[in-house]
Amino acid sequence: MFYQLKITRKGTKPPVWRRCTVAADVTFAKMAAMLEKLVQYPAGSLYEIEFFRKSTDP
Question: Quick check: 44 pLDDT over 80?
Answer without folding.
Answer: no
